[in-house]
Design a protein that fits this description.
Number of helices: 7
Structural class: mainly alpha
Largest sheet: none
Shape: elongated
Helix content: 55-70%
Strand content: under 5%
Number of strands: 0
Distance between the termini: 81 Å
Length: 165
């Protein structure tokens, strides 16, 4: 379930007023681990962390530092995610999975649409070339009309022949 910023603040305030994690999980219908993560994130970074965009991009260097903390220093994904201020610990887990799948290399995915090819500048054709194209076009039209009339004449002759019994 996705929560709005106001709902997250309400959950945090209820927790600080003494509500248990399990009661909040039942009330809002979410996994208690999510609530623990949310509360730890706000405790560490303050309520301003909730203004952060979900589609924020991280550069390769930041991702690599976080991945190395988990793999080499054996820190938990949860603690590193909270330190970085990621809105979900699953983000870091997916970074690690992609890192391992790509032979321990970080691959930056292109975001957004593929840019359209630029239109070529209008090139003015020479008058001679334009005239030759017009003549060719006229010739093809006449040829098409001739073939249509020829086909009509042939069809008429076929229809006039007596039928064989």
């Amino acid at each position: 379930m996705k929560f709005t910023q106001k709902q997250r603040i309400r959950i945090y305030k209820e927790r600080k007023q003494g509500a248990t994690i399990s009661s909040l999980a039942l009330k809002y219908g979410v996994n208690p681990s999510y609530l623990k993560y949310l509360i730890a994130l706000i405790d560490n970074h303050g309520l301003a962390i909730l203004n952060k965009s979900k589609s924020e991009c991280y550069n390769s260097a930041d991702k690599l530092v976080a991945i190395k903390k988990v793999i080499n220093n054996h820190e938990s994904c949860r603690s590193v995610s909270i330190d970085l201020g990621l809105l979900s610990s699953h983000t870091l887990r997916s970074w690690i999975q992609n890192y391992k799948d790509n032979d321990y290399n970080i691959i930056e995915k292109k975001r957004g649409r593929i840019p359209m090819p630029k239109k070529k500048a209008n090139i003015k054709k020479d008058d001679d070339e334009l005239e030759s194209l017009r003549q060719e076009n006229e010739y093809l039209k006449v040829e098409l009309e001739y073939s249509k009339k020829l086909r009509a004449v042939i069809q008429k002759r076929i229809n006039q022949q007596p039928k064989k019994k």
